[in-house]
């Protein structure tokens, strides 16, 4: 079996370059490209069609969860392996719902990262040692109804989710500004951020996505 072809996406150049050098030194992985933000990662994966993209979640322009959704939709044969410092349940589950096949924390060592890349390239789903037991336990509790369902659209801030809720309820920008005691400009900025993060181009698409997730019905 040939070495998996990998794209690395992380907005921190020191970490990204260090990871590239570490993986290249093993001879077990071929790093074919690197990206510094979510948009660049999506474009690079579409162009190079690697076996695996190792992706951070906190990136400028397009966050890692949204980038994962686009990559999985456009290039389903490429496996997404998240390598992030975030370990809260909602973030991990959001990445997996977006289509990621693996999730590691940035404290993972060389052996664990190589093992995860190989597993994802082979079509497996894998969690890092620090997450596996907790995620398994979380799903067990979720199945029993012992934990609340995760909030939809975790990439949104609390204010952006509040604005989306009101958009889904049919309120105009002026009505949202009045309801939340915000300036019209602040509301416009929040609406633009919501559209960008949900990857929609207009209010109608945002309403459909929000109502499908259960927002705007109260």
From TrEMBL:
Residues 149-214 form the HTH luxR-type domain. Keywords: DNA-binding, Phosphoprotein, Transcription, Transcription regulation. The keyword Transcription regulation applies. InterPro entries: CheY-like_superfamily, NreC/VraR/RcsB-like_REC, Sig_transdc_resp-reg_C-effctor, Sig_transdc_resp-reg_receiver, Tscrpt_reg_LuxR_C, WalR-like. The modification 4-aspartylphosphate is found at residue 56. The keyword Glycoprotein does not apply. Residues 5-121 form the Response regulatory domain. PANTHER family: TRANSCRIPTIONAL REGULATORY PROTEIN NARL-RELATED, TWO-COMPONENT RESPONSE REGULATOR. This is Transcriptional regulatory protein DegU. The lineage of its organism: Bacteria, Bacillati, Actinomycetota, Actinomycetes, Streptosporangiales. The gene is degU2.
């Amino acid at each position: 079996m040939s070495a998996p072809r990998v794209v690395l996406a992380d907005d921190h150049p020191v970490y990204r370059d260090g990871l590239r050098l570490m993986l290249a030194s093993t001879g077990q992985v071929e790093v074919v490209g690197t990206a510094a933000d979510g948009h660049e990662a999506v474009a690079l994966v579409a162009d190079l069609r690697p076996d695996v993209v190792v992706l951070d979640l906190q990136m400028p322009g397009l966050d890692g969860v949204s980038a994962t959704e686009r990559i999985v939709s456009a290039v389903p044969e490429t496996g997404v392996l998240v390598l992030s410092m975030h370990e809260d349940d909602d973030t991990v589950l959001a990445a997996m719902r977006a289509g990621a096949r693996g999730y590691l924390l940035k404290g993972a060592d060389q052996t664990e990262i190589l093992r995860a890349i190989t597993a994802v390239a082979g079509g497996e789903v894998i969690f890092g040692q620090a997450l596996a037991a907790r995620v398994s336990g979380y799903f067990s509790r979720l199945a029993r109804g012992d934990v609340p369902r995760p909030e939809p659209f975790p990439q949104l801030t609390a204010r952006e989710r509040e604005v989306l809720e009101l958009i889904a309820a049919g309120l105009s920008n002026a009505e949202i500004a009045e309801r939340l005691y915000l300036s019209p400009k602040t509301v416009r900025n929040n609406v633009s951020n919501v559209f960008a993060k949900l990857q929609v181009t207009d209010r109608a698409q945002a309403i459909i996505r929000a109502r499908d997730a259960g927002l705007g019905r109260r």
